[in-house]
From TrEMBL:
Belongs to the phycobiliprotein family. This is Phycobilisome protein. It comes from the Bacteria. Gene3D superfamilies: Phycocyanins. Keywords: Bile pigment, Chromophore. One of its GO terms (cellular component) is phycobilisome. Pfam families: Phycobilisome (PF00502). SUPFAM superfamilies: Globin-like. The keyword Ubl conjugation does not apply. GO terms for biological process: photosynthesis.
């Protein structure tokens, strides 16, 4: 009944739907599903946090290699520093959204705002190349089970920012 809706939205909807009555087992299922995945979500988050610097360095190196001769983008050192900062923040926000299973908040809060900036500077092509590399690198630090929780969040980043 509540599948595909974020965790916080699910709780709000459950509260409204069950006003004055007890929730059914079906209505409570999303809580059980989340609780079954919370250990893996936390493990994923902690691994990304612990390896953040290595992940960022590896992504930066791969992007630099792909951009030989400035074929993807032209960016001065200041612009590259801004991209590194933004990449670090995106990884943090994306990981946090995955932990609480709230990709709607990620989309509505951060990604729509960043999309405006990406479009303004014309870096959609850069983003479409960049986020698959982030996904590729992060997978190296995670088990397949952990990766299945975080990769859809990064795919959302890529889809919105690269549009």
């Amino acid at each position: 009944m509540y599948r595909g809706i974020t965790m916080l939205t699910q709780f709000s909807k459950l509260s409204l739907d069950t006003d004055g009555r007890y929730a059914t087992d079906t209505e409570l299922q999303f809580i059980e599903d989340y609780l079954e995945s919370v250990d893996v979500r936390i493990s994923t988050y902690e691994k990304i946090k612990a390896n953040e610097e290595a992940i960022l360095q590896e992504v930066d190196a791969k992007m630099h290699e792909l951009n030989k001769d400035n074929c993807l983008y032209k960016m001065d050192e200041h612009g590259q520093d801004i991209c590194r900062r933004d990449r670090k923040q995106a990884i943090k926000y994306t990981s946090a959204a995955m932990v609480i299973n709230d990709l709607d908040r990620l989309r509505d809060g951060l990604l729509i705002w960043l999309q405006t900036i990406v479009r303004a500077v014309g870096y959609e092509r850069f983003v479409r190349t960049h986020y698959p590399i982030i996904q590729e690198v992060i997978k190296q630090y995670l088990t397949p089970e952990e990766a299945k929780f975080i990769l859809p969040a990064f795919q959302l980043d890529c889809t919105i920012l690269g549009a």
